[in-house]
User: Which sequence fits this backbone?
């Protein structure tokens, strides 16, 4: 009896959907996971090289394509290796077993006598004259995976566990055309959409003459309901028209968020839906109670390139090129929007800049598709303007997190309540979120009902809302805010960052009340060996000194989390100086991600998570002022080269059998470690993010 | 009316005839000359994705009208090196795996080249300051700084493209 197939393989069991041998000496692998800068394609090639016993150089990869690849939903949630990679391993192991069975027939021996070396079949170490490509005609891969292929043991892995150079980086370093923005189709037209300011806004008047004058070149208007686009062959003319159109198209029923609504505290005045998880509310008792409220404002994904999409409608078939994270859910949503059979839509993934979650990618693809439907035969390229990306991309929600802890006589928590106020973290098309363009069309789709990411998928606002620490009673109360002032959706880690920030700052506050060192205090309330190991490791790396005095302007802080309480473990120490502003100088990180496919790739992801989280915590908040007022890199500054700390990372337990998702694990611990270091440096706590100069000054005045 | 602009790109003279001579140099490089390595990031001269060398100085070209570079010498990422003959910076970026999504890299490598042309052995702080006009959103900063340091050392030791 074989073990159950890994989820993505059970969903897409046909082996030829994963692996094929169409040309002598070459292997094609197909993955539903897409490259978003995290190096997943290189890791998949390493996995296939190991389980098929072929050189990496023989492998070509196709990814995220509704015609070719498995449907693995979204490339999100740090699940690509933990689930998609395990599925790829098993698919390759099954394929290898089928080839060995066929080779045994041809050679006239037992399959157990055979092995594979770089695609060639060996019998007791000697060449048989057979290889994958001579056998391929006789091996039918159009069959369901069985799980009968035995995956390699960790000790036998050659590629998995060895750092591999990223396959995609050289083209990017030599300036080759690799991104969706670089695609050029014959007869292609450029387009900009004049964005509907909000759902329900109606075009009042269009000053076409002013727009055409600004274009200084030939452009035309395409309109369907309140969806208005400017289209033309010359990108510069379309850009000029698109930029000026904002001022020359007037709208009725415009709603704009106010400055006050940008603050997390505004959420507390809104309608909400309650959900309670975990232990029943504790009875009032004599134990000492600690309570504190933390918050974070809205954040932007702020992808470096504005979103881009291409589409062509020809002979009744729509072809779309997109950098979204899920080509299959986008296809389903486009089918609904455009009234097409999904069989008549093909969606191809093409790389773009890092997205870190649900940015404008899906919407830009839908824009192109809507225009293409009105201009059959013409390939349409929509590239959003910078301001458009900042203003219209879904924001990650502001959150308020209140922690109440009851502590025992030794100062340890025995009862923990994490109370969370947040709008949804998922408005992806696959979760019912409407595409922006669709909302502007006649008969727009209805607002999706209030929802958030289900707990079985790791939760949205509730992600990491339950501490991993050994606390007798734990509960979580989620107030789902139903009417946020802007569209909200997934950003790296979803609710994990604000929840871990609140939780791990609170743990430090409890340690301080108990008169204990934060490292020792954490170790005294957690038995999980892997958690203890990363905390102890990072303390050793940073030469943690329990007796370092605080309040001097120099501070150190530690924090820990296991992402989603079921992916990788990570502990972070941050060191910084605070005068009026914070200068983050050094970050140390120890991570246990189980079996690591590409150690340098994982390190790169952890570093990226640390720097992005530091940027969120130190600098970032989307401002509103009669509309979204963070619309470029000056109004939404991010961490610069001169502000980036030195970072030391160590991976532990990398030869475990099971890989654990790692892409988002450092976001929460980094935020909390910085918060704790600032508190150590100031001798006073700031509980609201970002840690701006105003908040530092206000805290110093109060202290 | 069509206007013609003449300048040099990666050592080769080019002549571009455009209806609108306000067309940004970036659009000319990408759409007229097929040099896609220089990226559009903001169109506002803020993010540095479109950085090229103009007469040796690193400049953003997403809002720079093509008429303004008449007679000047432009170097883009394609002019630095090739996979067969990489510039020491490109070699070092690969060795240090200095990038994640890679969208910022062309502009950053150009900015780094301008720095090393002026200052062959910069400190970490000098490298960081020289790259502050370039945004990296993925968090590859430290790898990028290490790659520039490594390229500087190799160029000091005589490495060329």
Assistant:
């Amino acid at each position: 009896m074989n073990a159950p197939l890994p989820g993505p393989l059970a969903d897409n069991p046909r082996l030829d959907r994963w692996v094929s041998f169409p040309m002598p000496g070459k292997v094609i692998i197909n993955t539903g996971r897409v490259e978003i800068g995290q190096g997943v394609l290189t890791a998949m090639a390493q996995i296939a090289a190991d389980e098929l016993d072929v050189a990496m150089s023989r492998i070509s990869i196709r990814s995220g394509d509704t015609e070719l690849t498995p449907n693995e939903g979204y490339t999100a949630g740090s699940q690509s290796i933990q689930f998609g990679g395990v599925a790829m391993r098993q698919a390759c192991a099954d394929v290898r077993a089928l080839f060995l069975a066929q080779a045994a027939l041809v050679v006239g021996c037992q399959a157990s006598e055979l092995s594979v070396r770089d695609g060639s079949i060996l019998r007791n170490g000697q060449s048989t004259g057979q290889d994958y490509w001579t056998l391929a005609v006789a091996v039918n891969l159009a069959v369901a995976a069985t799980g009968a292929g035995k995956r390699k043991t960790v000790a036998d892995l050659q590629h998995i566990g060895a750092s591999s150079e990223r396959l995609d980086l050289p083209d990017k370093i030599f300036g080759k055309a690799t991104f969706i923005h670089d695609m050029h189709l014959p007869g292609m037209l450029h387009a900009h959409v004049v964005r509907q300011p909000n759902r329900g806004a109606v075009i009042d008047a269009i000053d076409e003459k002013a727009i055409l004058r600004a274009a200084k070149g030939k452009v035309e208007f395409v309109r369907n309901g309140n969806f208005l686009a400017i289209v033309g062959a010359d990108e510069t003319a379309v850009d000029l028209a698109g930029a000026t159109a904002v001022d020359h198209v007037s709208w009725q029923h415009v709603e704009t968020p106010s400055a006050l609504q940008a603050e997390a505290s505004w959420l507390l005045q809104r309608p909400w839906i309650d959900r309670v998880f975990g232990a029943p509310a504790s009875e009032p008792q004599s134990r000492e109670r600690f309570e504190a409220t933390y918050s974070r404002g809205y954040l932007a994904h702020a992808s470096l390139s504005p979103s881009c999409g291409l589409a062509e409608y020809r002979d009744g078939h729509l072809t779309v090129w997109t950098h979204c994270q899920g080509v299959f859910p986008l296809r389903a949503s486009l089918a609904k929007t455009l009234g097409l059979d999904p069989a008549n839509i093909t969606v191809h993934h093409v790389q773009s800049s890092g997205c870190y979650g649900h940015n404008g990618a899906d919407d830009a693809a839908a824009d192109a598709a809507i225009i293409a439907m009105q201009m059959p035969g013409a390939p349409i390229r929509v590239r959003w303007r910078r301001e458009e990306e900042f203003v219209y991309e879904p924001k990650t929600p502001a959150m308020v997190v209140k922690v109440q802890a009851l502590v025992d006589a030794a100062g340890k928590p025995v009862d923990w309540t994490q109370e969370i106020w947040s709008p949804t973290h998922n408005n992806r098309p696959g979760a019912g979120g409407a595409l922006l363009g669709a909302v502007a069309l006649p008969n727009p789709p209805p607002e999706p009902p209030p929802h958030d990411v289900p707990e079985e998928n790791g939760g949205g606002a509730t992600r990491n809302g339950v501490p991993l620490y050994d606390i007798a009673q734990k509960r979580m109360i989620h107030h789902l805010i139903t009417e946020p002032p802007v569209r909200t959706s997934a950003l790296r880690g979803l609710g994990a960052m604000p929840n871990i920030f609140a939780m791990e700052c609170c743990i430090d506050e409890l340690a301080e009340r108990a008169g204990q060192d934060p490292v020792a205090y954490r170790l005294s309330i957690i038995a999980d060996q892997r958690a203890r190991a990363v905390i102890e490791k990072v303390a050793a790396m940073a030469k943690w000194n329990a007796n370092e005095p605080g309040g001097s302007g120099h501070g150190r802080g530690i924090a820990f989390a296991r992402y989603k309480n079921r992916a990788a473990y990570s502990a972070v120490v941050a060191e910084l100086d605070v005068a009026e502003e914070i200068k983050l100088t050094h970050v140390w990180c120890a991570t246990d991600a189980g079996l690591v496919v590409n150690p340098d790739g994982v390190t790169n992801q952890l570093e990226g998570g640390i720097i992005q989280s530091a940027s969120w915590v130190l600098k970032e908040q989307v401002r509103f002022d009669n509309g979204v007022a963070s619309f470029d890199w000056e109004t939404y500054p991010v961490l610069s080269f001169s502000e980036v700390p030195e970072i030391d990372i160590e991976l532990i337990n990398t030869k475990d059998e099971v890989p654990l998702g790692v892409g988002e694990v450092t976001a929460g611990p980094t935020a909390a470690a910085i918060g704790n270091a600032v508190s150590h440096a100031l001798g006073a706590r700031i509980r609201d993010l970002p840690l701006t100069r105003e908040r530092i000054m206000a805290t110093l005045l109060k202290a | 009316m069509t206007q013609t602009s003449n300048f040099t790109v990666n050592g080769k003279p080019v002549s571009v005839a455009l209806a609108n001579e306000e067309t940004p140099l970036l659009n000319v490089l990408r759409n007229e000359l097929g040099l896609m390595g220089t990226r559009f990031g903001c169109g506002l001269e803020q993010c540095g994705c479109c950085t090229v060398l103009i007469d040796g100085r690193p400049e953003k070209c997403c809002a720079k009208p093509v008429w303004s570079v008449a007679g000047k010498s432009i170097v883009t990422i394609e002019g630095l090196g090739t996979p067969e003959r990489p510039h020491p910076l490109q070699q070092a970026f690969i060795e240090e795996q200095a990038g994640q999504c890679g969208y910022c890299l062309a502009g950053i490598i150009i900015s780094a080249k301008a720095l090393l042309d002026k200052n062959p052995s910069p400190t970490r702080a000098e490298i960081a300051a020289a790259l502050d006009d370039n945004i990296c959103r993925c968090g590859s900063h430290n790898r990028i700084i290490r790659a520039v340091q490594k390229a500087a050392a190799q160029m000091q030791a005589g490495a060329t493209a």
User: Anything to note?
Assistant: Chain A is about 30% helix and 20% strand. Residues 2 and 147 of chain A are 6 Å apart (CA to CA). Chain A touches chain B through 60 residues (CB under 8 Å). The two ends of chain A are 66 Å apart (CA to CA).
